[in-house]
Amino acid sequence: MATNPMQKKARNSMLIGIIIGLLVGCIGIAAFFMQATNYKKQIEEAQANTRQAYVLRNDIKSGANITMNDLVQVNALKDVIPTDYVTINDITENTIAKLDLTKGLVLSKSMIHESDAKVTADLREQQYNMIILPQYLDIDDYIDIRLMLPNGQDYIVVSKKRIKKITEDTIWIDLYEQETLVMSNAIVEAYKMKGSKLYATTYVEPGNQADATPTYVPSSTVINLMNSDANIVAEARQALAARYSSLMTRREQDINGQLNAVGEDAQSNLESNIEQEITKSKEARKEYIDSLNSDI
User: Fold this and answer.
1) Does residue 86 form part of some domain?
2) Does residue 287 share a domain with residue 199?
3) What global pTM score does this model have?
4) Non-local CB neighbours of 145 within 8 Å, separated by 6+ positions
5) 166-193 per-position pLDDT tens digit
6) CA 236 → CA 126, 186, 240, distances in Å?
7) 104 and 143: one domain?
């Protein structure tokens, strides 16, 4: 049967179209795979050149704790971030800032370190309203509490304590049991000696500055109490014994000498000062309760 020339031409055109279509499709598929391969390569190169770093969500003061809530994870080019950039494994519950840090800063390991502070069973929040405070003291600042005697001798009572809360004349700090006993002794002796001063000094860069070594020596009665206090851990008791054994001569000559010089006025000075302290505490408590009631 003879083939119609028109049908043959149409069949040939269709075959050519199919072949061209297949060629175009193959070229398209090849181009797609080349593009996909190139895109994959770009992604791999980008991943090789970027790192997951952490940026500060807010300002952090020197010595303050840094938590994951203070950080935002970002993908950054490795060439524009510190080589010692912080990863998630570098942040713990004891991580603190070495210096003042600003919002938006990429955090590096050189900016942080681990605090030596330990939360033990005898750690308590204490409130004091008889300490002379620096004018610009604020929450999260670190202080030493010192006792200056009437003759100018000056002792560190407790060192490097973070201000947790503060009002005009009252601070809240965490103290271990032995520190609480030493503070109580220093307060009593400051009250007895007119012209003495119990005051706070502020650390400049608490994240970098080590704790000062306390130099104040409590009375022998308080030392005996600390030696028998079950709330004081054995490690702390041994450290206290080593410290005070070498300083007892200073206690006898200096502090006891000043107390003896006060004479009969010591007891009346103590009573009047404690009365003032109690009054101030009651007034502050009433002011706080009134503020709660006003919000209801």
Assistant:
1) yes
2) yes
3) 0.71
4) 131, 156, 157, 158, 159, 161, 183, 186, 198, 199, 200
5) 988 899 999 999 999 999 999 999 988 8
6) 19, 19, 6
7) no
